[in-house]
Amino acid sequence: MTDAVSPLASPFPAMPMIAGVTPRVARAGYKDWGRCDLTYVELAEGTTVAGVFTRNICCSTEVELGRENVKRGTARALVVNAGNSNAFTGYRGREAVEQIAGQVADHLGCAREDVFVSSTGVIGVPLPKDKAREGVDQALAAEPCSWEEAARTIATTDTFAKGAVATAVVDGRTVTLAAIIKGSGMIAPDMATMLGYIFTDAAVAPAFLQQCLSAANLQTFSCITVDSDTSTSDTVLAFATGKAGNAPLVSFDSPGADAFAAALADVCRQLAHLVVRDGEGARKFIAISVTGAVSDESARRIGLAIANSPLVKTAIAGEDANWGRVVMAVGKAGEPADRDKLSIGFGGIWAARDGLPLADYDEAPVAAHLKGQDVTIEVDLGLGEGRATVWTCDLTHGYISINADYRS
Amino acid sequence: MTDAVSPLASPFPAMPMIAGVTPRVARAGYKDWGRCDLTYVELAEGTTVAGVFTRNICCSTEVELGRENVKRGTARALVVNAGNSNAFTGYRGREAVEQIAGQVADHLGCAREDVFVSSTGVIGVPLPKDKAREGVDQALAAEPCSWEEAARTIATTDTFAKGAVATAVVDGRTVTLAAIIKGSGMIAPDMATMLGYIFTDAAVAPAFLQQCLSAANLQTFSCITVDSDTSTSDTVLAFATGKAGNAPLVSFDSPGADAFAAALADVCRQLAHLVVRDGEGARKFIAISVTGAVSDESARRIGLAIANSPLVKTAIAGEDANWGRVVMAVGKAGEPADRDKLSIGFGGIWAARDGLPLADYDEAPVAAHLKGQDVTIEVDLGLGEGRATVWTCDLTHGYISINADYRS
């Protein structure tokens, strides 16, 4: 956590504890930063789990093991190390993760595979095993903490703690979802993202939990980008303790399944937006709506080509309605487009329609829109029914300052 | 041309005039900038032509017509407008290009299709026809100018004039190639690039000229990137006047064909490097060598993923040997890679081999290397024989400053 808070920061929401979920934090000292950096979340017996992970080929051991373990569908604990991603550290990194899982499994009397471990921070430095052991010991003995404390403890370059909450009525009972997430740079999730954790007291069969999470992911985490760089450690896990006492959700035929899936998607969308709002150096939150594409997937790819364009992002930073750069980004996306059917707008006002600048285009209201913190870009391809919305932030001097000397 | 010259600038070389090629410049006044902005190059009868163009779907009329006309293989003139790319301007933009081609064709008594027109600058503003007509009139009556003057006149945000020269002995005669180029932002050529023009007095059949240019392009312009954004106007044209009097080159079986192809590739490499050396905000020239990939094309894609990563580029800007970010970029490239066979180095010194940080890695010489202006990154995938070198620059505050208020 850095001192200068993002101007787009959202206050941490009032988040209830979830029955069967107990977070604790400790100071392992992975970096010399005088703050807690190890988060331990104990989960009641019977908790189910689902997850989505980075597609980066050079992923961390944590991601490899998580991807494997999530197939079993059960979980008893989560450990998150901040300050060191432990990625690209070979057998030494793997030993550290196995040690942590073993230590927690011994304590709880559960299978090692029920302990999920994530790490975030610098790549290429093996997680120090001694610090990890002491940190886990401390955490196992610590008092339970608040969600906000847990959210602060999983953070690295984040400038504010990020949480989201939603409820749904399932089988006559109100179930609650509480979630925390970290991330602000190296954000271009490829069907997965960052470190995000969703906890619910609903009873949900693991396969259905996975189905809901994967679907939500496609419309949320897979539609955000800060800098086009896909992390080696991206992970989102959803845990369901079942303590709400509803009849377990096993498919969309289960009563309340739609409400639960909608609440889960809502939480994922909140979390995804929070990450963009803390994009490194971000001063503006940009929503890009693409319509008229040949398919939803094509619309998403075009949206991401715009959202990843340094020239579009610097134009928005400069409050410049430079729609020519949007045209350029559409054209380089590698997706079907027809220059002479293309329309571009800002803040709901078209600047160009059907491949031509509008003769009566009045830039004044667009300029006023771009001065705000929340900017929208509208693109209509005029080809089909495909649509998508993606979210990003502007590219400013702050991004350069943060990343030109992060490790040093 | 801006005032603050890139620290990586190269002096303009001594460039001879090419028999059959006469450059002239004029002030059309496309922008209120008190400099020449229209370049006219007259080519002798019998001149052959080849070209490569942007793959951006939203390309300009100039690119569409150029791509069509180059198939005929003959050329008599080139007109380059600076300050307005005339892209995304519909029928109004097309009328302006046709007017220019007609005006020059009437003057020379040649086919309109033998007049090649390029435009560079802001997207989405139709090229003003009255200014174009006056500018062409001026240029047709102007005294011939130097290559350096022509190179300055095709430039926009460039900070220095860019030229390259090479010679080859063909059929017992020395042929000369002289070339100019502009470009510093919106540079991520997709099999083509920017605005570049190569002139030679060699006699070369158009099909063979195209073969040589396309091959050279793949190893030069297609291997550079400044900001991952592919322009709507990228064009490289090669013109051969035949005035050297050699027996025309028609294939690699023609005497001297290898020498000519090598000289052409040399000029293309020089031009490509000059563009990177003028990358917007660039302070370091970065060469990325990828070896051990499954194919040359796979190596090139991995190299470009590294070269386009904002996190790698900011790390180099900060003189930080953050090889973890290189690992990340390899992993997100979408190409075959095996984390545990991957090796990463800087300045010829390995930091990690076979998926592990080197135990005896000494960062001091690497840190010294990164303080220089010329930085190399070595990546070995350990999978096959594929190799490629790509070139880029670092990402600095200068890029943000230039692009957050270019148009305004």
Automatic annotation (TrEMBL), chains A, B:
Catalysis: reaction(s): L-glutamate + acetyl-CoA = N-acetyl-L-glutamate + CoA + H(+); N(2)-acetyl-L-ornithine + L-glutamate = N-acetyl-L-glutamate + L-ornithine
Coiled-coil region: none
Pathway: Amino-acid biosynthesis; L-arginine biosynthesis; L-ornithine and N-acetyl-L-glutamate from L-glutamate and N(2)-acetyl-L-ornithine (cyclic): step 1/1; Amino-acid biosynthesis; L-arginine biosynthesis; N(2)-acetyl-L-ornithine from L-glutamate: step 1/4
Record-annotated site: Involved in the stabilization of negative charge on the oxyanion by the formation of the oxyanion hole: T120, G121
Residues under site feature: Cleavage: A192, T193
Gene Ontology molecular-function annotations: L-glutamate N-acetyltransferase activity, acting on acetyl-L-ornithine as donor
Signal peptide positions on this chain: none
Subcellular location: Cytoplasm
Stretches that traverse the bilayer: none
Enzyme Commission number, as recorded: 2.3.1.35, 2.3.1.1
Residues annotated as binding substrate: T156, K182, T193, E280, N403, S408
Main location: cytoplasm
Top-level EC class as recorded in UniProt: transferase
Function (record text): Catalyzes two activities which are involved in the cyclic version of arginine biosynthesis: the synthesis of N-acetylglutamate from glutamate and acetyl-CoA as the acetyl donor, and of ornithine by transacetylation between N(2)-acetylornithine and glutamate.
Assembly and interaction partners: Heterotetramer of two alpha and two beta chains.
Name listed for the protein in its UniProt record: Arginine biosynthesis bifunctional protein ArgJ
Organism: Novosphingobium album (ex Liu et al. 2023)
Designated gene of the protein: argJ
